[in-house]
C-alpha cells in the first residue's frame, strides 16, 4: 500500500459476469474454471481486485441472483473445490477476490421459503414478508417492482401475499427478524473463512422496509404496461427502500469483516447524491457503487455534475466505487454514440473516473472497447424488459477471447446468448498482441492509476476553464482535462505531459506569454499534466 489505511484504497477492480466470461465444460454457460483460465489476462491488464457475480445453486430465474443455497456452488459453475482453486490462483497473482452477496431476497426454491410454504405457522414464515390481501382482495400496498409490475404475489396455499421487489421468483427476506440476521452472520463467516476478500452487497438500499409497509406517494399515473423504469418513477420511494435501520445491518457486517480485513461495497442504486451519501455513513459499508455515470449523455455539464455530486456527500476517501458499464446497463461505448467515436468517448470518460478519488472498476470486455452485442429477439434471455431493446442481453453477450468458433468463449457454438456479432479484432488474443489496441490503452490507464499515489490520496479541486466543453480537475500536482466537444482545443502544457488517451500534436512554435509548450487536444480525448 502507498500510505493508505486499507488495502482497497489502492485497488483497481474488475467485474466478471460469470455466465458470460468463459465456459470450460462445453455447456455454453460460463463457469468458475473459466475465470481461473483467464486470470493471466487480468494480471496483464493490471487489475488487483476481482468481483465475481453469483455462483450459488439457483433455478436461474435471474441468472444466479435468485439464490437457493448461500453456502454452495451451482454445478453449472463448478463446486467448492473449483472456487477454492480460483481463489488460490487469483491470490497467487496478487488479485483479491470479492463475491456477490444477495441478501434482499432468496429464490422461491430456497429451503427457507419452501419451509414457509409448508408450514405457514412455523418459524420460517417470518423469514419473509407476508400480508393479508387488502379490503378489495388486492395487494396490500401500491409498491412496484424494480423489474416492473406489482411487488406482491398471492400464494394460494397460504391465502397471503408475499413481497418481492424484483421477480416473483425472488421473495424478499424480512430483515426485521433477528433470525435472518443470524443466518447471514453464518453465511459471511463461511466465505470469509475460505479466504475471500469481501463482498459486493446486491441491492444494498432495499433490505429493511417500512415497518407498516405503507404505500408510497404517487407522483404520476402508473401504467402496468409502461417500461420498468417509467413504472418505478411513478412513485416517490420513501417506504420501500433506504430505510435508516438498514445501516445497522451494514455496521454488523463490517464488524465481522474487520476480523478478516475484508471489504464491503454496496450496489447502492440511488441516483440522489444525498441519499447515496447517507448509505455510506461511517462504520457501515466501506464503499458504494454510484450509478450516475451510467445514466448520462456525452455532455460536459452532465459529466461534471455526475462526477462531482457523490463526492460532495460520500466523502473522498475511497468511498465511491466507479463503473462506466455493468451487467445491467448498456455499455458506455454504445451509450456514447457507438462505433469508434463511442469507444473513444468511453475511454476518455473512464480516464476521468480513474483519476477521481474512490475505487474504479472495469466491466468485463470494457478493456476491449466492446459495444453492446447484437441479440435477436428470438435469442432473448433476460427475464425483464417488455421489449428486447430494453433488455440487459446486449451488455451480457459472451466475452470474445480469440478468433474461431464462439470466439473462444466455449467449445460449444450453442451458447446461452449469441456471440453478439463480434469480430476477430474484438477478441482479447488479437488485442493483447497489438500495441495500439483498446486493451493496450486500458492497460496503460490501469498502470498509470496504480503508479500515481496522488490519484489515491490527494484532495480533489475542480477547475474552471474558458471552454464549456472541458471537464478539468486537479489532484495534487496532477491536472486532468477532457475535451468533451467535437472540435480540437489548444492546451498550454506548463509541466510534464504524463498520460494521454491519444497521441497529441505538439506545437512548440505558437507564442505563449508563459513560455509553455502547447498541444492540440482533439475532441473526445483527455490528458494528464504534472504541473511544476
Report on this model:
- The chain folds into three domains: 7-106 and 177-212 and 250-451, Alpha-Beta Barrel (TIM Barrel); 107-174 and 213-242, Oligo-1,6-glucosidase, Domain 2 (Oligo-1,6-glucosidase, domain 2); 459-531, Sandwich (Immunoglobulin-like).
- Helices cover 25% and strands 16% of the residues.
- It has 532 residues and is of the alpha/beta class.
- Strand 12 (460-463) and strand 13 (470-475) form a beta hairpin.
- It has an eight-stranded parallel barrel with strand order 1-2-3-7-8-9-10-11. It has a five-stranded antiparallel beta sheet with strand order 12-13-14-19-16. The chain has a three-stranded antiparallel beta sheet with strand order 4-6-5, with no helix packed on it.
- It contains 14 helices and 19 strands.
Amino acid at each position: 500500500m502507498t500510505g493508505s489505511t486499507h488495502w482497497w484504497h489502492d485497488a483497481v477492480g474488475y467485474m466478471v459476469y460469470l455466465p458470460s466470461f468463459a465456459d470450460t465444460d462445453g455447456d455454453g454457460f460460463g463457469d468458475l474454471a473459466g475465470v481461473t483460465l483467464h486470470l493471466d489476462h487480468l494480471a496483464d491488464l493490471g487489475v488487483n481486485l476481482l468481483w465475481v457475480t453469483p455462483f450459488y445453486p439457483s433455478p436461474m430465474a435471474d441468472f444466479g441472483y435468485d439464490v437457493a443455497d448461500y453456502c454452495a456452488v451451482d454445478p453449472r459453475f463448478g463446486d467448492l473445490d473449483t472456487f477454492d482453486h480460483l481463489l488460490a490462483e487469483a491470490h497467487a497473482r496478487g488479485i483479491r477476490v470479492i463475491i456477490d452477496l444477495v441478501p434482499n431476497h432468496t429464490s422461491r426454491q430456497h429451503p427457507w421459503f419452501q419451509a414457509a410454504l409448508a408450514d405457514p405457522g412455523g418459524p420460517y414464515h417470518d423469514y419473509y414478508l407476508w400480508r393479508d390481501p387488502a379490503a378489495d382482495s388486492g395487494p396490500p400496498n401500491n409498491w412496484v417492482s424494480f423489474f416492473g409490475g406489482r411487488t406482491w404475489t398471492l400464494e394460494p396455499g397460504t391465502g397471503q401475499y408475499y413481497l418481492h421487489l424484483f421477480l416473483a421468483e425472488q421473495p424478499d427476506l424480512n430483515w426485521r427478524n433477528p433470525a435472518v440476521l443470524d443466518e447471514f452472520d453464518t453465511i459471511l463467516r463461511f466465505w470469509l473463512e475460505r479466504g475471500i476478500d469481501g463482498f459486493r452487497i446486491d441491492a444494498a438500499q432495499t433490505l429493511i422496509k417500512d415497518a407498516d409497509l405503507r404505500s408510497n406517494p404517487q407522483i404520476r399515473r402508473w401504467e402496468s404496461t409502461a417500461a420498468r423504469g417509467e413504472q418505478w418513477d411513478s412513485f416517490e420511494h420513501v417506504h420501500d427502500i433506504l430505510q435508516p435501520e438498514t445501516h445497522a445491518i451494514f455496521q454488523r457486517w463490517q464488524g465481522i469483516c474487520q476480523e478478516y480485513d475484508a471489504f464491503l461495497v454496496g450496489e447502492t442504486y440511488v441516483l440522489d447524491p444525498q441519499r447515496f451519501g447517507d448509505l455510506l455513513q461511517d462504520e457501515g459499508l466501506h464503499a458504494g457503487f454510484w450509478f450516475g455515470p451510467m445514466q448520462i449523455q456525452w455532455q460536459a455539464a452532465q459529466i461534471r455534475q455526475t462526477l462531482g455530486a457523490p463526492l460532495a456527500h460520500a466523502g473522498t476517501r475511497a468511498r465511491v466505487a466507479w463503473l462506466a458499464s455493468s451487467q445491467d446497463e448498456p455499455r458506455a461505448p454504445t451509450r456514447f454514440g457507438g462505433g469508434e467515436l463511442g469507444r473513444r468517448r468511453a475511454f476518455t470518460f473512464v480516464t476521468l473516473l480513474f483519476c477521481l478519488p474512490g475505487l474504479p472498476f472495469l466491466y468485463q470486455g470494457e478493456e476491449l472497447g466492446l459495444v453492446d452485442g447484437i441479440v435477436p429477439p428470438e435469442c432473448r434471455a433476460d427475464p425483464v424488459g417488455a421489449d428486447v431493446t430494453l433488455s440487459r442481453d446486449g451488455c451480457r453477450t459472451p466475452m470474445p477471447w480469440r478468433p474461431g468458433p464462439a470466439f473462444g468463449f466455449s467449445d460449444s457454438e450453442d451458447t446461452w446468448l449469441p456471440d453478439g456479432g463480434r469480430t476477430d479484432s474484438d477478441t482479447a488474443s488479437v488485442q493483447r498482441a497489438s500495441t495500439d489496441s483498446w486493451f493496450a490503452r486500458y492497460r496503460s490507464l490501469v498502470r498509470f492509476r496504480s503508479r500515481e499515489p496522488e490519484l489515491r490520496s490527494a484532495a480533489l479541486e475542480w477547475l474552471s476553464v474558458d471552454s464549456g466543453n472541458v471537464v478539468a480537475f486537479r489532484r495534487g500536482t496532477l491536472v486532468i482535462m477532457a475535451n468533451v466537444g467535437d472540435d480540437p482545443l489548444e492546451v498550454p502544457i506548463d509541466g510534464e505531459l504524463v498520460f494521454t488517451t491519444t497521441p497529441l500534436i505538439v506545437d512548440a512554435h505558437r507564442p505563449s506569454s508563459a513560455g509553455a509548450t502547447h498541444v492540440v487536444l482533439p475532441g473526445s480525448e483527455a490528458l494528464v499534466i504534472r504541473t511544476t
